[in-house]
Design a protein that fits this description.
The protein has 131 residues and is mostly beta strands. The chain has strands at residues 3-7, 10-13, 18-25, 33-41, 48-54, 63-64, 72-77, 82-87, 96-105, 120-121, 125-130. The chain starts with a strand and ends with a strand.
């Protein structure tokens, strides 16, 4: 059974930075590729895709939604089995609960931008940016 645990959320001023972590425990079935993504959800809004990465890729596989490009960066620590989301130049509109998600697929990870595409989810971590 796969478990995802997020941490690192909190409060920041606009223009500031936060780094979110998603620790993975357990293993998925061994086929295709493993995709990990970050989503976020604000009150009254649908869960929004933020970024996705192909795990253990030998290239920079990070893909980002337009509103965070150039500000957010994905990275992995394979030894710690942890995915990070470095968030810089934060804006008030980045305020949301952030969730990490994971699934195995034969498709390209970059094609997975809908919450329904993902099998495993973390519990979420709150990010609040004040202007």
């Amino acid at each position: 059974q796969v478990q995802l645990v997020e941490s690192g959320g909190g409060s920041a001023q606009a223009g500031g930075s936060l780094r979110l972590s998603c620790k993975v425990s357990g293993t998925t079935s061994d086929y295709g590729r493993e995709c990990m993504a970050w989503f976020r959800q604000s009150p009254g809004k649908e869960r929004e895709w933020v970024a996705i990465i192909t795990r253990w890729a030998d290239y920079n596989s990070g893909t980002y939604t337009n509103s965070v490009k150039g500000r957010f960066t994905l990275s992995e620590d394979n030894a710690e089995n942890t995915l990070y989301l470095q968030m810089t130049s934060l804006k008030a509109e980045d305020t949301a609960v952030y969730y990490c998600a994971l699934r195995r697929t034969w498709a390209s990870c970059g094609d997975l931008q809908n919450a329904r595409d993902f099998t495993y989810w973390g519990q979420g971590t709150q990010v609040t940016v004040s202007s």
